[in-house]
Write a structure and sequence with these properties.
This is Noncanonical pyrimidine nucleotidase, YjjG family. One of its GO terms (molecular function) is 5'-nucleotidase activity. InterPro entries: HAD-like_sf, HAD-SF_hydro_IA, HAD-SF_hydro_IA_YjjG/PynA, HAD_sf, PGP-like_dom2, Pyrimidine_5'-ntase_YjjG. The protein has 229 residues and is of the alpha/beta class. It folds into two domains: 132 residues, HAD superfamily/HAD-like (Rossmann fold); 82 residues, Orthogonal Bundle (DNA polymerase, domain 1), CATH 1.10.150.240. It contains nine helices and six strands, in the order βαααααβαβααβαββ. It has a six-stranded parallel β-sheet with strand order 3-2-1-4-5-6, with helices on both faces. Helix 6 links the parallel strand 2 and strand 3. Helix 2 runs antiparallel to helix 3 and helix 3 packs across helix 4. The longest helix has 20 residues. The model has no long low-confidence stretch (mean pLDDT 96).
Length: 229
């Protein structure tokens, strides 16, 4: 479908290549136990996962700061669970979460296989809203850094997806026109609609089991990328 027109493929990282939920669960399993926080991990994650997505949306929209994101997502979970915990402990957990998260390196199934397939044929890049120091460490520790020519993050761009500026910066760095570029990501709002607004082709990795939409094709397994490229 895109074989004859696309030269550059841009990937989101978290929830697209890097299995954020699995790595996040392992991180919380470690830090909650080490800090003697007496909550059941499944109960914690049931609230944390949607809460984290909601706070990331606020962060994308410039309605909260990085520090507020990191504190409030945990504070909200403990408040919902009615678990008494000090601000000091929440701040400690927040720091330890960031420190340990990128030590876990689970990728989505078929990530490496697909990158190996694409690398000889296309220029590959990352566009991520994640924090620069963390995202680069994730890529290195997961041994996929070398697949990508450019890694564009929101701190570098000064804005977050879906803001057009971050996509324009990515196109500029890759020296490619939007008509020859494809964006693959999990977020309809940030990745798909953001990229389409700038003129990129898009492919939606439906990791969140969202309903079908008319904006672009959807895939449920990264291996399906091979049928488009």
């Amino acid at each position: 479908m895109f074989r004859d027109i696309v030269t550059d493929v841009f990937f989101d990282l978290d929830h697209t290549l890097w299995d954020f939920e699995k790595n996040s669960e392992l991180t919380f399993q470690k830090i909650l136990a080490e800090n003697n926080v007496g909550v059941e991990l499944p109960d914690f994650l049931e609230i944390y996962i949607p809460t984290n997505l909601a706070f990331w949306k606020l962060y994308r929209e410039e309605r909260i700061t990085k520090s507020e994101l990191r504190y409030q997502r945990l504070k909200t979970v403990f408040d919902t669970l009615k678990y008494p915990i000090s601000d000091e402990t929440i701040n400690l957990l927040s720091e330890e979460y960031i420190a340990h998260l990128s030590n876990y390196n689970h990728l989505f199934p078929n990530t490496t296989e697909v990158l190996e397939y694409l690398k000889p044929k296309y220029n590959l890049h990352i566009i991520t809203n994640g924090f620069q120091e963390i995202q680069e460490k994730k890529l290195r520790n997961a041994h996929i850094c070398d697949y990508f020519a450019h890694i564009i993050n929101s701190e570098m761009a000064g804005v977050k997806k879906p803001n057009p500026i971050i996509f324009q910066l990515a196109l500029q760095k890759a020296n490619v026109s939007p008509q020859k570029a494809l964006m693959i990501g999990d977020s309809l709002e940030a990745d798909i609609l953001g990229a389409k607004a700038v003129g990129l082709h898009t492919l939606h990795f439906n990791v969140h089991n969202e309903p079908q939409h008319e904006f672009c094709e959807m895939i449920n397994d990264l291996r399906e990328i091979k049928s488009f490229l």
